[in-house]
Amino acid sequence: MLDEMGRRHGTDKWDAWHSFLGESFLDVYERYLGAFRLQPVTVLELGVKGGASLRMWKEYFPLGAIHGVDLNPRCQEENEERVTVHTLSQDDAQGLTALAEAVGGFDLVLDDASHINSLTAASFRILWPYVKPGGFYIIEYLGMSWVDYARLDNQH
What we know:
alpha/beta, five-stranded parallel sheet, two-stranded antiparallel ribbon, 6 helices, 7 strands, 35% helix, disordered C terminus
C-alpha cells in the first residue's frame, strides 16, 4: 500500500537506490508504521524538496498532521490541508524546539535532509526529546552521509 502511494505521489523512496535486499524504504516503513496508519499522528519530515513524501504521508496517515522542514522557502508552496512546511535549518534548535512544543511532539520524525553528519546529529539531539513514547525517529542514508569536511579540517 505505502509503496503504491509513494509511486503515485512521485517519491523516490521505493526505487532501487532506496532498497536493500529486495526491500524498499517504504516496505520497511509500512512494516513498522502500519499500526499508526489510522491514528491521529503528528509527523515531521526533515527535507521537503518537491513535497512528494509529504503528500504520500498525508494519504497514508489520513488523520495525521504532516509537517516538513526545509531551508528553501519555496517549499512552503507544498502547504495544503494537514500539510505544513516550515522554513528552518535542520540544526535550528530554537525553531525546531518551538515547532515541537507547538504541536505537542511527534509520533514520527524522518530525517531526509542534508545527509551531513553534523547536521543529522544536531537534529537528533534537538528532536529526540520530542518523540512521543512508542514513536519513531528514522534517519535515511545514515550509511551514506556526507562527511562534514569543514569540521574535519578544523580538527587538524
